[in-house]
Amino acid sequence: MASLTPKMTKWTLDVTSRLMQANVRLHDAGVIEDDMAALFVVNDFTRLETLLLPYELHRERQKVACAVAADELFEGALGTFLRSLGMVSTKDPNRDAQVVRTLLSGDPPWVVFPAGPALEHAAAHGVGAQGRLRRWLGRHIWGSRHDGGGAALALRAEFCRRKLECLRDRPDGNGLEHALAQFGMDSLDSTLERRTVVVPVSVTYFPIRSDESGLLQVAEKLSETDLSENAIEAISVDGTVLSKQTDIDITLGTPIDVWDYLDAPDYAGLMACGLEDADLIQQDPRSLFNEAARRLLAACADSIRANTTVNADHVLAAVLRRMGRGAFTMREFRQRAALCAREMLDRRQGHCHPHLEPVCRDLAHGENCRTLDDFLDLCLRENALEERSGVYRVRRPARSERGRRPAQLAWVIAEKAERIPALAEAARRAARTPGFLVRTRVRSALVDEDLRQFEQDYEANYEEGLTKEQGVGRPFLLRPVRPKGGVVLIHGYMAAPLEMRAMGDYLLRHGYAVYGVRLKGHGTSPADLARTPWHDWYESVNRGFAIMQTITDHVVIGGFSMGGGLALLAAGRKGANIHGVFAIDAPLHLRNPAARLAPSVVRVNAFLKRVHWPRPQWEYLGNDPENKHINYTSNPVTGVAELGRVMSAAAEVMSAITVPSLIVQGSADPLVHPDSGQTLFDKVGTPYKELHILCRDRHGIINGPGSREVFFRVTQFLRWTRRFHNEVRQGGD
Q: Domains along the chain?
């Protein structure tokens, strides 16, 4: 094996580096110490882990590791090629001797070994089921070869190291030369300086899809016609992990010192036997040696489970598998998956894929989620899921042959997710909890998050004379006993939820649930607004929408001034997830031409700060609002620039709006140019839209004289959206 190491290094660098374009993250490589003869036990999700890890270890530590790879890859000419590179098949008759010799000599210093079904079974059943585990190991793992996997090989290597030490310490040195010759070693110096450790390695991929890969094409050229169906299946799935779209997380667990499993009084008799007895004690499934192997195996399984990087595919597959045979809507599935994802993010900090947090938000907020769409497409394509008229049902996983992986990749992912106890339990709770409790928990968590964020922002940004009372900026939820629908109300720029409260109370009296959003940076202080980008405003809208979705299926989003622009932006992004949108005095065009200069002023201010310019920057403008008890009296220039970005983002997606839309505009608005209403109306893509121009000479038309007419128009629009939605569901025009 050692003689083939240079070839393997060259292949790893020249071939693997060309094939592997994925984003690989190697975590906790610092756990490896120089005196360790390490056997890396790797969970084998795709069969390529034992080819991938040597490459990453070499890149990180500049040392070579030999690998024992899955036997499915060693077929025909491809197998000959892999053997020529120093790779060893899991079913190679000389495998055990080569691994033990390498662990003793330390040349090369490390061995990578696939975990195999034994570790998966230990992960699934735990150490507590010792009787079943022992019977299963005896029946399926040792078999005729009595193969204990990586755990047994590591124990055997450390056993031999200790016996060689005993032989050296004998006064006559009897048997030492024969033992050294048996292992192909000249001396014991480097051998006794090392200790055998098992390093559990958790490798996760996100996403992984069963498309044809470049690796399969290479394999077919090498093997011509002698690739078996099993090898083709393995490579076609496994090769996708090399693509640019795949993230690979490799986490090294804490090294497990093998001697700790043999250094006990119960094992004194075992350690007293000779080297020639090692094979005999390993062959007996009930021996103390194999009892230690089982305990070591279980410790590896626990470590791999603990270090698994949970990703969105894991969560979606785990929840879907637990959904059972009943029918469910996509909204219900999204809420349950979001609940499960949130629990995992809270419980497994540091062991979740970075993409899981935004996916969780998108699931809860009803945003278009590419990850969800991709996963659903996979499930529908593989018949793991069926859909009729927006209602979904899970199809039971099928197996191509006994003992092989499930036919559907979605269920392969789900089975691996089941190996993570925390995820399996979270998915079970999320899938089996009654629907009304799921909605209640999601709503409670989101409302609490909204209120907690406001209170923290209020305390951190309070400014005497500038900050209003807490009741002005606090978001509010109004809910009738039996709501006709739900409305998310969004206040305007420099305002606060109290601005929308009168409309909210009016809609509540007419039977609608209402959530008054507090846009981040508002209801606190102008300085807070100056630091807040518009994406945070939109995130506040998303949270309000998610809250309302837990109350009713029929959700309409609407807002005043900038809130109207955010409502249109949400309608363009959320598509059919909402049932209507309205915008009142939305500022597509402002009367004040100086507003167009705000982005330039912001850039100049930033430059002056960087060069420490002594003169004060133009950071705030005076503001004389109609409602001084609500609005800020100081307007940050950065906020004006963000306002422009909101309307630009809304204008880009308004053609994608397909739901009923209402545009209301004051004819003599002193802030918003009157042509904004007509322009917005023209840009909205849906043919089901209304434009109302009201004779008003002030901007704040949702409060004070004439506001009830606006409320009446909105209520009439809400009734229309209900009729429209019912007609669509019934197949009408």
A: 2-22+29-306 (no CATH), 312-433 (no CATH), 462-729 (3.40.50.1820)
